[in-house]
Amino acid sequence: MLKSRDLFMISFASVFGVLLAATYLADRFITQLPEDAKIVPIDLDLDFKLVAEAYASVVAPRDGKFGLGRFATKNELAAWDKDISPDGTGLPVGSGDAIDGEEIFSERCAFCHGDFAEGLDNWPELAGGLDTLADEDPVKTVGSYWPYLSTTWDYVKRSMPFGYAQSLTDDEVYATVAYILYSNDLIDEDFVLSNESFFDVEMPNANGFIIDDRKISESHFWNKKVCMTDCKNDVKITMRAAVLDVTPEDEEF
Q: 95-200 sits in which CATH class?
């Protein structure tokens, strides 16, 4: 019994000593956060400077607000504001062709989308499918479905390669998009895609989308007084799921 007690006391003393030492060392290396971010030495970590700026920008509560936070800086906004509009707004200066794009695509994209952008396993195909949109099983690719080339550029730049997004330079994005276009037979391999030649490319489904005007065109169908109970005197079944071929008939289901 005495041995157990002695072991417990030794263990407790050891743990207490370790915690005391850790607290002492932590206190030694704590740097006070300055209220004025300008006095932060330039050699300090950038994250520390950003925290200091945020701390310095907190204002006293007023008008019922907490007074927390600050306005985002121009650099912080620029880091997120990378979208490319259909009219070309946001396109950076740069260029690339399908010849260079093929090498980039092979190294960064082919393990999901295939060497020829045909898609692998469940990963989506990016090429092919022309004139299939009216089929029972349409193949929706950049060439057959996407109406705006800006969407392709924006998506590749923002989200690709999978798991390593935004690692491509602007020129590499132009080259990669050029290879995707070439795989869809939309440009020749020596066509140089750039911010200047961007709109020389004609997307096959450019006119395949319409403006959603239901707010105007269907407003006369809307009933301002919505019926919630006893809305119809009798209810008739006009169609069954089995007739629509959406209900499995296999017994195992």
A: mainly alpha
Torsions phi, psi of 188, nearest 5?
-80, 160
Give the domain ranges of the chain. 12-81, 95-200
* pLDDT tens for each residue of 129-157: 999 999 999 999 999 999 999 999 999 99
CA neighbor of 104 nearest in space, from 56, 157, 45: 157
Strands (E), the chain: 95-97, 192-194
DSSP states of 53-75: HHHHH-----TT------PPPHH
Dihedral sign computed on CA atoms, order 146, 184, 153, 120: positive
Higher pLDDT, 176 or 244: 176
CA distance 189 to 186: 10
Is residue 161 reached through a cis peptide bond, with omega within 30 degrees of 0 on the bond before it? yes
Distances (CA, A) of 182 to 32, 118, 151, 160, 189: 57, 12, 17, 18, 6
For residue 236, list its beta bridge partners: none
Q: What is the pLDDT of residues 200-231, one digit of tens each?
A: 999 999 999 988 898 888 887 777 777 888 88
